Amino acid sequence: MNLLEVNNIGISFGGVRAVNGVSFALKEGHILSVIGPNGAGKTTLFNMLSGVYRPMTGQVLLAGQDVTGMPAHLLARRGMSRTFQNLQIFSNMTVLENVASGFHLQEKGSLIADLLRFPSAKRRVQESEDKAYELLKRVRLEQAAYRTANALSYGSLKRLEIARALALEPRLLLLDEPAAGCNAVETEEIEHLVAEVAESGIAILLVEHDMKMVMRISQHIVVLDHGEKIAEGTPQEVSKHPRVIEAYLGASATEEMV
């Protein structure tokens, strides 16, 4: 069954059609990558799906429910989580505290109990920290748990942001260029992590410019150009599509994708 269904979604800014009639579907545990040149509409598409923008046309279904234009906090409660191109990290908090902050949607308690530090509030904090530590182990950052986030390398910060997104316990994870700015070793670490997350049953919608990574881990690829879908299919199908080669990858496309 499809976890995410995007039907004819579109939006305009100042009369310019940024995304025009894009449709696709994503199954649980699968990785679908959205690729295209700069300005193709990838981030705009992500912003519509994640509640930053409200689509002007089309429909978004999450687990069969219409969530078109729903704000981000309500989407999170329904199982959607997202990372951004630019890191959204609390740099002066510890690595553990950064991840624990992601559990706030699951916490149940009163403001008074928190302010007066009731035992129930202390238990919630401890439970969040315990779960956060388990997530840090999952992204291989447990040894840095009590260091401040600003002491981490860039690649480690990228993995930290994924861990915090996982703290929302999503069914669908949107990753916006998780390997951008990373070196070869950091990119490989993130690639393995993304694949492991998908293997756990979480659906992943990925925007990424590293074509080798995209081709290795994606089950399905959607290609955008000037806001429109120009191709869709498996990595093998997309890599041979003439419009993809012409509009995006150029003459050396085959070499770049291998």
Keywords for this structure?
six-stranded mixed beta sheet; 258 residues; 24% strand; four-stranded antiparallel beta sheet; alpha/beta; globular; 10 strands
**Major β-sheet annotation:** 6 strands, mixed
Fraction in beta strands:
15-25%
The value of Rg in angstroms is 19 Å
N to C succession of SSEs: EEEHEEHEHHHHEHEHEEHHH
Question: How many helical stretches?
Answer: 11
- Give the termini distance in whole angstroms: 30 Å
Shape: globular
The count of DSSP E runs of length 2 or more, i.e. the number of strands, is: 10
Mean pLDDT: 88
Assign a percent range to the helix content.
Answer: 25-40%
- The largest beta-sheet arranges its strands as 6-7-8-3-9-10
Please identify the structural class as seen in this structure: alpha/beta
Q: Uncertain spans, ≥5 residues at pLDDT below 50? A: 251-255
